[in-house]
Amino acid sequence: MTTRARWRKAGWVLFFLAPSAVPLLLFTVAPMVSSVWVSLNRWNLISPMEWVGFDNYRSLLTDPQTHTVFLHTLVYCVGYLPLVFAGGLGLALALNQRLAGRSFFRAAYFLPVVTSWVVVALVWKWLLNPTNGLVNTLLGAVGLPQPGWWTDPTWALPAVILSSAWKDLGFVMVIMLAGLQAIPGDILEAATADGANAWQRFWRITLPLLSPSTFFVVVISLINGFQVFDQVYVMTGGGPSGSSQVVVGQVYDLTFRYGRAGEASALSWILFSVILLITAVQIRGQRRWVHYA
Amino acid sequence: MPDLDLTAVAPNVAPGAAAPATAPSTRSKRHGVHFLNLLRYAAVLAGAVVMLFPFLWTVITSITPEGSLAGGPTLIVKNPTLAAYRTLLDTLPMWRILVNSLWVAVASTLLQLVTGSMAAYGFARLPFKGKNVVFALYLATLMVPMQVLVVPLFIEMKTLNLQDTYMALLAPSIASAFGVFLLRQAVESVPRELDEAATIDGAGHLRIFTTIILPLIRPALATVAVFAFMGSWNSFLWPLVVIRSPEFMTLPLGLATLHGQFTTEWDVVMAGSVFSILPIAVAYLLAQRHIIAGVAHTGIK
Fold this sequence. Notes:
CATH topology of the domain at 96-261 in chain B: MetI-like fold
Helix content of chain B: 55-70%
Strand content of chain A: under 5%
Oligomer: heterodimer
Strand content of chain B: under 5%
CATH topology of the largest domain in chain A: MetI-like fold
CATH class of the largest domain in chain A: Mainly Alpha
Distance between the termini of chain A: 46 Å
Shape of chain B: globular
């Protein structure tokens, strides 16, 4: 190849890749690298940085507050995942058969998915208002106890979980519905011919064949769940008295309220490692239970 | 709405073709079947009420006179009023905030489509040294969540004097590795013979890209557009960090600010919510089939 031809070729590569590579370098890779740097320093965003090595990581790992925010985040995931999964799967199963107004229902369930987290959090904060919110009014009408929801340390996290599950139910439903429709009908028919009842068909055929979709939902939900922030910030602000503070909320507060950017960066990297680890474990473990047809 | 999609594939399935492949449930003529169907319908209906009623409640609250909210709003509003909307528009430049949200979402969607499809073509069609390494680096950026970037990105914007600008809002979403990944798969699925035939006819890369590749990867472009638009429209953490003045706020940030000022005036807060749901709800109703199909196809293996 002549030099000229080689330059031409390089020129085309640059032409097609630069528009994405330059912004990714400037606004993702560069901040990523400097975030590592910041995490090794003590820094309040104003005065010069002070090198502390791994001190931020060390103090964070032993700080009870870190354990608390991780615990809250974990509780959020553990509460949220079964709710969206069971709800989404149930709706998908119901919609996977002939049904009058099926596309209307599908569209209705999906509407919260396109609504922003902030709106969902506000609407639910109002629905779950302890004194004159709709939910407590209804609970009171049938004589059930009326929790203080986001004003009560015990109920703040459940309130966040409930509204988050409501928002994402439609998303899970759409993924599961797509999975259900990919299951060949003749397998189910053959099972019916062999005398399997609906219950057996669901557990022995539908659920195993659905496992790729289930896997996708679990992986994505946990990745997003560990990064929960918007709805907590709006609904409870991490309160009352820190009872619903989550990891990303702590990153935000450390940086912009307490001016401890070094620790905030370190905490964000700890969170990233946790997410990476959990995802890796799931991907390794999928061979055991995920069946690709 | 997830913004991370590690296992997203299969963009070559056309959206809109969401086949209603109903499982042909063998209709046994047992008595229970009718009752079961009724039960199923009741469940689906109850689900729809749970999903839709909060939206109705939001509208009802927003037109209820403030004084009558103390006892909780009622289904039928006695003296409906638009006072809350007036307060809303007097407090924040809501129209401008709405336009900001739209403009940033549209701009970042278009940018991601252009940068993403170009990179996809580069990775799928141009042979060059170290391609796999570069592609792996792209994928690595996909895994880094926003909260890791927030602090240094904020400092970067401050040093570049970009705080409180549209550029700051757009910066992290000019290109998305997720889009590149999805679109590359789509370009790969276009038969190379088409390119080769065009090359014989004297077409260069640019012609092949615009006249052959782009039209054939339209379904994948639609999926990327849906995710890009929703990602930008809903994004909160980054605007919260980098925007201070109301003139550059987007809807989620504007709403959170509104709530900060009117902590107990739920009619105003709900008016703001209606204001921000309405445009996206209309867009959603118009493109509902394509949006759902686009989301569904990220989950199929």
